[in-house]
Amino acid sequence: MSLREFLFGKKRRCRFSTNLSEDECINRLRKLLIKDTIWIPSDYSSEIVGTIKESIFIIWKNSGRNSWKPQYRGKLREMSKGAMIDGYFDMYGFTKGLMIAWFSSGILMFSLSTTLFFLKIINTEDRDIPLWCLGMMIFGVIISRSGIWWGEKDQQSVIDFIKKTLQANQID
């Protein structure tokens, strides 16, 4: 398992094929999803939510306030007989960016404070600063892994939604 997979979860590729045309798939998704928005309204009660813009869509299970839940990022392509849906599950991009900033600042502060401590530039009373930075990174790992674990079952709900809504068969 790579560090990226450990901290942000594994990207899971999922492809589907359907006998519906690309336009019909887009129309079906547009009827059920919110179009091109960042925030989902709080009164939106659908089990699966997401956005669609042209032939690209992002969907996820509406399962509470788990920012680490997996999102399916898909693209529709017209084929000779129907359409191909090619995409993958990954963590929400904004959350991933915040976690990268969190871990980067923790590593930077830990490295800087440890170096300053061993060079005796900071006082011995401040020797717990590197431990706070280390604790910050450990907390980040725990919260990230917990969110990924809570969101694992949501992937199957999204797959089932795609199969049902777009009458699709999963390829891989």
Write the layout of secondary structure elements.
Elements: H1 3-8, E1 12-18, H2 22-32, E2 34-35, E3 48-53, E4 56-61, E5 70-79, E6 82-91, H3 93-118, H4 129-151, H5 154-165, E7 168-170
Parallel strand pairs: 2-3
Antiparallel strand pairs: 1-6, 1-7, 3-4, 4-5, 5-6
Helix pairs in contact: 3-4
By CATH, the topology of the largest domain is: TATA-Binding Protein
What do we call the CATH homologous superfamily of the largest domain?
A: Kinase associated domain 1, KA1
How are the strands of the biggest sheet laid out side by side? Answer: 2-3-4-5-6-1-7
**Strand content bin:** 25-35%
Quaternary form: single chain
How far apart the termini lie comes to: 21 Å
Poorly predicted ranges = none
CATH class categorisation of the largest domain: Alpha Beta
CATH architecture of the largest domain: 2-Layer Sandwich
Radius of gyration: 21 Å
Percent helix, as a range, is 40-55%
Give the ordered list of helices and strands.
HEHEEEEEHHHE
Query: Taking all residues together, what is the mean pLDDT?
Result: 83
